[in-house]
TrEMBL record:
Residues 1-31 form the signal peptide. The lineage of its organism: Bacteria, Bacillati, Actinomycetota, Actinomycetes, Kitasatosporales. Belongs to the glycosyl hydrolase 27 family. CDD domains: GH27 (cd14792). Its EC number is 3.2.1.22. Residues 551-696 form the Glycosyl hydrolase family 98 putative carbohydrate-binding module domain. SUPFAM superfamilies: (Trans)glycosidases, Galactose-binding domain-like, Glycosyl hydrolase domain. This is Alpha-galactosidase. It catalyses: Hydrolysis of terminal, non-reducing alpha-D-galactose residues in alpha-D-galactosides, including galactose oligosaccharides, galactomannans and galactolipids. Pfam families: Melibiase_2 (PF16499), Melibiase_C (PF17801), NPCBM (PF08305), NPCBM_assoc (PF10633). InterPro entries: A-galactase_NEW3, Aldolase_TIM, Galactose-bd-like_sf, GH, Glyco_hyd_98_carb-bd, Glyco_hydro_27, Glyco_hydro_27/36_CS, Glyco_hydro_b. Keywords: Disulfide bond, Glycosidase, Hydrolase, Signal. It comes from the Bacteria.
Amino acid sequence: MRHLSVHRVRTGVVGALITALLGAAGLSAPAAALSPDDPTAPAGNEADAQVGAQTGTRTGTQTDAQVGEALALTPPMGFNNWNSTHCRADFNESMIKGIADIFVERGLKEAGYTYVNLDDCWALPQRNAKGRLVPDPVRFPNGIKAVADYVHSKELKFGIYTSAGTKTCNRAGFPGALGHEYSDAQQFADWGVDYLKYDNCNNQGVDARLRYTTMRDALLATSRPIVFSICEWGQNRPWEWAKGVGQLWRTTGDISDNWGSMLSIMKRNLALAPYAGPGHWNDPDMLEVGNGGMTDTEYRTHFSMWSIMAAPLLIGSDLRKVPESAFEILGNREVIAVDQDPLGRQGAVIGSEGGRWVVARELADGSRAVALFNESGRPQRIATTAQAVGLPAAAAYKVRDLWRHTSANTAGTIAATVPAHGTVLLRISQDRGWALLPPAVEVGADDSVMAESGRTAKLTATVTDLGRTPALAVSAKVTGPQGWTVKAVGRTAAPVLTSGAKLTTEWEVTVPADASAGTHELTVAAAYHSPTGKRLTASVPASVSVVVAPPAGRSYLSDLSWLSAVNGWGPVEKDTSNGESRAGDGRPITIGGQVFAKGLGVHASSTVEYYAGGRCTGVSASAGVDDEKGSRGTVAFEIWADGVKAASTGVLTNAMSAQPVSADVTGAKVVRLVVTDGGDGIDSDHADWADLTISC
């Protein structure tokens, strides 16, 4: 960041430019724009220049710019109410004080959670006669300063929200800060604000850099250290220019409490690793843990991936109402330590083939945090090596599982069978005491086993010694759901497994005649002893997909059950468009004005798999971008048969009518329907498999 005085001498020009841009938009800058709250202060550009003259250079040991640079040296941690309350009445003084109390009582403060932040709707829709913001007296009867004082009394910090526009994002039209930057910043400082989330609504087309830099200067002018969170949704690529303007910047639109939303945001943020570091963080939005829209497995993935991405950890759930599992996830200090590592490196993608993600992050002590993330809808083995994630060659390494809180030694292979939508988060290091640790043992099974009801399927399970030391008295066992029969075929034990050795076991799994179609979970477990005699156990999930062969003739695939479905935004919808993030919120499938009664509504990136059982010959559809997003959306459709691409459309846009696509799938057991983003990134890529049929 350049010295503050350089920015200050420009503030008169900034004020004039904002006034001109507001005028061009048909608006007038308020008399108090860019001026202090003092009603006798000059208005407009004259006041702006005076503020600059008064605060341009500080004497003493520290400039305002240096204060800004010292903020958020690790990603901010805390709370924001928006994800759980939006503008509902339960967002009020009582809630905010209650969250501060819970931070202390449940150990979250001690774990590192610091900020208790308000979001939109805290103010009245109109400023007072002096142009100042007025807190809603119903929500905050004692005012904002009283709430900030309460938060500070708990030795926590307090945050607030406004927008870099004339109004905030809520439809009620609460006042934004555009044209009021200096007076609002001073009002926030007077209240004791420590953190400002600065949104992007109603911005009147004013240049983003100008709007956010002006508020940066206004915050610095208060001489109060205030973390500046830039929330312009990644529209203007803030990662390229916002270092030195704010301490964090949103990289995406708002998150929703569902798997598709979290996954899409995670993927976009992962690509921005080079731009993050101490005092300047990529922000993929707040946490949804505890809000109820995802499973605990998915919430652990959410928390793990945000931590390995060095993302801010702002709790978005009402902690007065969440289940105990949410506290267990949010309070995992070993995972938090990854997020808060002082080196400040965001994790980089090592690989992602087949939805098997490996993301690694260098830590300050030289170790590596490694996330093995399974994007798919069934358990998968994910593997890498210590050297692939950046560690130097060594005889062995210590591997620490940050969710199981166990340690082992590995000869270099890092591998695990990861549940559907799950993440195994590890910390790998060189450790002279590795020989005292038990060997890491990998338990695994076939990635994909399919069987029809009443039939028997074969499953192969393995136990592998990944350690440098031997595993002794090794045994394996597979169990299925109640009513299922699981029988071993051959040996299930070995007296010793040396480094790299594997015990392979075969099992017959008989599916009950009344088993429902879908994925059913089995458990593969291993027991073994370390060289020191300690008995250990390990288990992983395996899955059997109970399938129903399509009927003879031509059928709509939307009338059949799929094997798995992964969608880039919200769930896959049957016989409607994708809609938004919630199930069932789609509209009639419409491509180029043509309405279709049947089909699948998806959003790139999307993969939907169906069982064909080797009995079908062809799949056909009319493919295109749904009209529900106007002129946006660019996608490509693909049909795969048993892992071989059988047909593709090329890139389709919203300007095109529905395009025919068909494929020969003769003999294929599994048909996979894929929609990609067309190579230009994901932006409203709502895609329709209209009139989608299979012939058998």
